[in-house]
Write a structure and sequence with these properties.
The structure holds two protein chains of two kinds. Chain A is mainly α. Chain A has one domain. Chain A has four helices and no strands. In chain A, helix 1 packs parallel to helix 3. Chain B has ten helices and no strands. In chain B, helix 3 packs across helix 4. The chains are: A mainly alpha, B mainly alpha. The interface between A and B is large, with 32 and 46 residues.
Chain lengths: ~80, ~190
């Protein structure tokens, strides 16, 4: 297995955090993060950013009255066709 | 009263469960709740009318999002004034992190920012950026699925996404400084 330097590891970091890397590269990035504290800290920072985004964004749901309005419009469309 | 047809049943089973996703993406695309409601309704009606073109069991979410996006571009986009991208070419990727690594290396300030402010910051990104960010980092779609939905190369998805994240981090950082959640590092340089 090749050893990634900081620049190479960071170039793959975003893909690593989004599970978009091949298993080989995942292992290489992980190995780098285990031996490099600076990069590991930075990775945690990016991770907390992504976690926050997912957490905040996905809470929003379609309001009941909007859902009802859309279902009524679909109902009307099905009768009209 | 006639029984619902097979097509109606499959629309209910395959399309309706994605309503929340469509609504969230519409909110981020339009950055306007009223417009988002209209956009989702238009999208669902179009999807219903062209449901025959959908192949059952394939990616309904992607199919619906493609309709949503085309509708947005054709009928909604010109209605509003779009924010512009920051000039990020000159910003070094880890500059933000470097300015907080001594005081808040784990980025805990992110968790202090209220939901509404986070969403507002997303909405201040250019539409192309909001779109990929919403699909990837909020809806959890893969790069491949996003590329297919938006009909753009995976490389473009990635570069927009990285720039979107950087711009958003910069927005949230300046908000956090303003609110006193974080102390800016002495103007080093």
């Amino acid at each position: 297995m090749s050893r990634l330097d900081c620049e190479e590891a960071l170039a793959h970091l975003q893909d690593y955090l989004k599970s978009e890397l091949t298993p080989d590269l995942v292992a290489e990035v992980r190995a780098h993060l285990e031996r490099c504290r600076d990069c590991a800290d930075y990775a945690r920072f990016e991770e907390s950013f992504l976690f926050m985004l997912e957490n905040r964004g996905a809470k929003v749901t379609c309001p009941k009255e909007v859902r009802a309005r859309i279902l009524a419009a679909l109902q009307a469309a099905s009768k009209g066709s | 009263m006639a029984e619902p047809s097979v097509a109606e049943r499959s629309f209910d089973d395959e399309a309706l469960p994605h309503l929340d996703t469509l609504y969230r993406v519409a909110l981020r695309l339009t950055a306007d709740p009223t417009m988002a409601e209209d956009l989702v309704q238009d999208t669902m009606l179009k999807a219903y009318r062209s449901w025959r073109q959908y192949r059952p069991g394939t990616n309904a979410r992607g199919w619906l999002l493609t309709i949503l996006r085309n509708t947005f571009i054709n009928d909604y986009r010109r209605r509003k004034h779009e924010p512009v991208a920051m000039d990020l070419e000159t910003v070094e990727p880890h500059a933000l992190y470097r300015s907080i690594q001594d005081t808040d290396p784990e980025g805990t300030f992110f968790s202090q920012i209220v939901d509404a402010k986070v969403l507002e910051a997303i909405d201040s990104l250019p539409a192309d950026f909001r779109e990929v960010l919403a699909l990837s980092d909020i809806e959890g779609m893969s790069y491949g699925e996003i590329a297919e939905t938006l009909k753009i190369p995976v490389g473009t998805v990635k570069s927009r996404l990285f720039r979107a994240r950087r711009q958003l981090q910069a927005e949230l950082y300046s908000h956090a400084v303003e609110m006193g959640y974080i102390k800016p590092r002495e103007a080093a340089r």
